[in-house]
Design goal:
alpha/beta, Phosphorylase Kinase, domain 1, 3 domains, binds 2-acetamido-2-deoxy-beta-D-glucopyranose, 32% helix, eight-stranded mixed sheet, Leucine-rich repeat, LRR (right-handed beta-alpha superhelix)
């Protein structure tokens, strides 16, 4: 017995050491591969510290002890990529060498990169053919080879890349036809090549600009028959009668099917419209036992129309108890009055639409009409009691709520300056100049205090939906956090893109948000505040990089001040040091692992230090 357990223990240790050896030797081979790369490409030297781990090298990112990302965009590299370099980074998932001056072929050993997802080689001088093995890499999602000197045909095995979403091949020297593509691409561009032939039907939905600068024909460009008559195209045998017969048979079938489909869709839309109408009409009569006075549609609120609509007449006799009040200091009103007030759509958020409701006597409130409430009435009311009991200078006050089977309304204090998101990303000029450093630092601090307050209530309370459109601003540009604590009562079906760009990597179910996930979202918010870039910004997404990683990649290779919103740095340079301190706080909040993130209380303390030392006005005190 004893010897047996001894044996198994030693076997265990043996395997353990083997594993250790494997891990270290793999990182060692990654290091060697990077050194091969460094020794082959010329230009601005890669200042990598050979005595440190490759994971600390500029442009290199590791995960679980292996190199998973290599990003050296715009680094002035030239020469050709060696075999035995990048191709030996077998755990690589992202490769970005865009906008360098690299030339020569795409190395043949890139076929080893079976985990590669994102390949960005645009803006170089790579030549030779596009290797067909790129499309057999099982995980590949984005391929960008635009603006190179690639020639030959587009490989005909594009369809092997079943996960491929982006294929950019514009501005090369590619020839021949575009192969039939059956996978669903989201982004596609082959403009400015020497391609000819007809555009496959599956690609006809892309804009003309994606095909221009070739000798292509067919939708979305000119029909092929027209080009066949043009003098440029080869004479060739004209399409035979048999062909056109076949085509017309197919066309007839297509037209019949299309007609049936259109008819069905129309019927469906009609059905939906009728139902919706019926539902809207039902709202008042079901909930309010009062004679229906006005034939107009129920209320100003449910009508998603803008301001100048005459206030809809609602039913009289609505009972006050329908609205449950938490605060009365904003003035007295009842559901009836609320429905009579003139409404203006403020926005369609992810939990529902918001309206501004103005009463005749001057009171203005914001009304949120919740969508996709999934919990029963009892749980809903309990939740709202908790939210209604919260009170903090940087939280938007919840004044009242209304619950019925068909309608769930929350009444909040109205914030005249709108949301931070609108101010940061809206029309230039409109209030954006107000967002100087002091204001932004103040907003960061106010939001941090509010979230800190939520977290201090008990360890399970979190905001769950922190993003710039939920940070509203008071007249004096103080942050007022809204939409707090609603995640647990809203359907998670609307979750996946709900907090796109703000969601912590570990969060898979948006209804189960932890405080550490809030810290992550708050970190993204800080980065957004400082860079002026929206976390869902197209340009960031195209590269598959989120805002935190974008900031990281820029601060790695350039001065941190390169990431700041130009609007922010234009007028002030002396506050720069504090901006960098705040940037670092934001970056620490967006740490990959929840345990590495600071607590919200800690974050608040750090931001307080920053804003005290920059002498920014500190209007809100606890
Ligand atoms: C790259 O991998 C190949 C095959 O595994 C190996 O023979 C070669 O030595 C490696 N090169 C480097 C620089 O590690
Ligand atoms: C290189 O890394 C080693 C070990 O991490 C460190 O001691 C040394 O200071 C670094 N050298 C430079 C120039 O950064
Ligand atoms: C592009 O490749 C062709 C050969 O295929 C070569 O003659 C030409 O010089 C290359 N152009 C550039 C800009 O590298
Ligand atoms: C495309 O161009 C090649 C020559 O570059 C020619 O041989 C071929 O017939 C052309 N194909 C079509 C469909 O025009
Ligand atoms: C395709 O690339 C060209 C540049 O060659 C650009 O002008 C065009 O806007 C792009 N079109 C699309 C749809 O991406």
């Amino acid at each position: 017995m004893k010897s047996k357990s001894k044996l198994s223990l030693s076997v265990f240790f043996f395997i353990f050491f083997l594993y250790l050896a494997a891990v270290t030797s793999d990182l060692e081979s990654d290091r060697q591969a990077l050194v091969v790369l460094r020794n082959s490409v010329r230009g601005r030297p890669l200042l990598w510290n050979m005595s440190a781990s490759p994971c600390t090298w500029h442009g290199v990112h590791c995960d679980a002890g292996r190199v998973t990302e290599l990003r050296l965009p715009g680094s002035g590299l030239f020469g050709s990529l060696p075999v035995g370099g990048i191709g030996n980074l077998t755990e690589l998932q992202t490769l970005s060498l865009r906008f360098n001056s690299l030339s020569g072929p795409i190395p043949s050993d890139f076929s080893n990169l079976v985990l590669l997802r994102y390949l960005y080689l645009q803006g170089n001088s790579f030549s030779g053919e596009i290797p067909s093995f790129l499309f057999t890499l099982p995980n590949i999602i984005r391929i960008n080879l635009g603006e190179n000197n690639l020639s030959g045909p587009i490989p005909d095995n594009v369809n092997s890349a079943t996960r491929l979403a982006t294929l950019y091949l514009e501005r090369n020297q590619l020839t021949g036809p575009i192969p039939e593509i059956t996978i669903t691409l989201q982004q596609f561009n082959v403009s400015s090549n020497q391609l000819n032939g007809s555009i496959p039907d599956s690609l006809s939905g892309f804009p003309q600009a994606a095909f221009q600068g070739n000798s292509l024909c067919g939708k979305p460009l000119n029909p092929c028959d027209a080009t066949a008559e043009s003098p440029n195209s080869p004479p060739g045998p004209s399409p035979g009668k048999k062909d056109s017969d076949k085509l017309s048979a197919g066309a007839i079938a297509g037209i019949v099917i299309a007609c049936v489909v259109v008819l069905l869709v129309l019927l469906f839309i009609l059905f939906c419209l009728c139902r919706k109408r019926k539902k809207e009409e039902n709202v008042p009569s079901r909930n309010i036992e009062a004679p229906v006075v006005a034939p107009t549609s129920a209320a100003a609120i449910p009508r998603e129309t803008a301001g100048n609509v005459p206030p809809a007449k609602a039913e009289s006799g609505a009972v006050n108890k329908d609205l449950t009040f938490f605060v009365k200091s904003f003035g007295e009103f009842d559901l009836d009055g609320l429905l009579k007030a003139s409404a203006e759509v403020l926005g369609k958020g992810t939990v529902g639409s918001s309206y501004k409701a103005s009463f005749d006597h001057g009171l203005v409130v914001a009304v949120k009409r919740l969508r996709d409430v999934v919990v029963p009435e009892k749980d809903f009311r309990e939740r709202l009691q908790v939210l209604g009991s919260m009170s903090h200078a940087n939280l938007v006050t919840l004044i009242a709520y209304y619950f019925s089977r068909d309608e769930k309304l929350l009444v909040f204090e109205y914030m005249s300056r709108g949301s931070l998101s609108a101010l940061l990303h809206g029309n230039k000029g409109s209030g954006r100049t107000q967002l100087n450093w002091e204001t932004r630092a103040g907003i960061a601090l106010g939001a941090a205090r509010a979230i800190s307050y939520l977290h201090s209530r008990d360890s399970t309370t979190s905001h769950g939906n922190i993003k710039s459109s939920n940070i509203l601003l008071s007249d004096s540009y103080e942050a007022k956090v809204s939409d707090y604590g609603l995640a647990p009562i809203i359907s998670s079906t609307s979750a996946p893109n709900r907090i796109d760009g703000y969601r912590a990597p570990e969060v898979t179910d948006a209804r189960k948000i932890s405080q550490k996930a809030d810290v992550y979202s708050f970190g993204v918010l800080i980065l957004e505040l400082l860079t002026g870039k929206s976390p869902t910004h197209q340009q960031l997404n195209e590269e598959g990089v989120d805002l935190p990683r974008w900031v990281q990649s820029i601060t790695d290779q350039q001065s941190p001040s390169d990431v700041f919103d130009p609007e922010l740095t234009r007028y002030q340079s002396e506050g720069n040091e504090n901006m960098i301190r705040l940037l670092k706080i934001g970056m620490s909040c967006t740490a990959q692992y929840p345990d590495s993130r600071p607590s919200m209380a800690e974050v608040t303390r750090l931001i307080e230090e920053v804003s005290h030392s920059s002498g920014s006005p500190n209007p809100v005190s606890d």
